[in-house]
Hints:
There is one protein chain. α1 crosses α2 (about 45-55) and α3 (about 65-75) packs antiparallel against α4 (about 85-95). It contains nine helices and no strands. It is mostly helical and about 200 residues long. It is about 60% helix and about 0% strand.
Amino acid sequence: MLTENKIREIINQYRIDNNNLLLSHFECKHNGKTEYGYSFDENYWNRKDLILDLYKNYDEKDKPLIKWLIQQESKGSEYEIPQYTIDICAFMLYKHMEVLDIYELYDIKFGLTSDIQCFVDIELIFGFDKEQMKDFLKNEKSNKRLNNKILKTINYYESQLDAIYRNRDAYINYFETKKIINIKNELEEFEEYYKD
């Protein structure tokens, strides 16, 4: 188990050199068990602590680390890890996104497990603004097939007349004042159950 100080030291060092060797204790590592309820990621708890510590203080220079964490969380989703930590990573990427990050956010929402698809909010694929994102997807010359897929998804959600979606500022406020509290509570309960 790594201390909070050690984790913060690793985060600070990674900001300087992006050296993945610093992250060996956080890399997804299957425990080798295949039975339902026993298949897990041996480094999940360390990575969860890293994600929660990073969430306390992060900015755009942490994007390489956030993207690395998303890769590990994506691998871990095959081994029954909680969906809460990838949601935090997706939010951190969203908060400091560039328009091309839409592809990674879309893959998080729709390319992993059904639990993640249900839990991660759709607002992430609306980017800075739904209309701007739609314009980008219509005009971007590369990834045309994927652009059309994302456009159809956005249009589908917009067609749900009874649904209410938050704009970027409202969504960030919602996540930072409400959802993160629920996520932390769920993670505490999961950890208590798992470690008993």
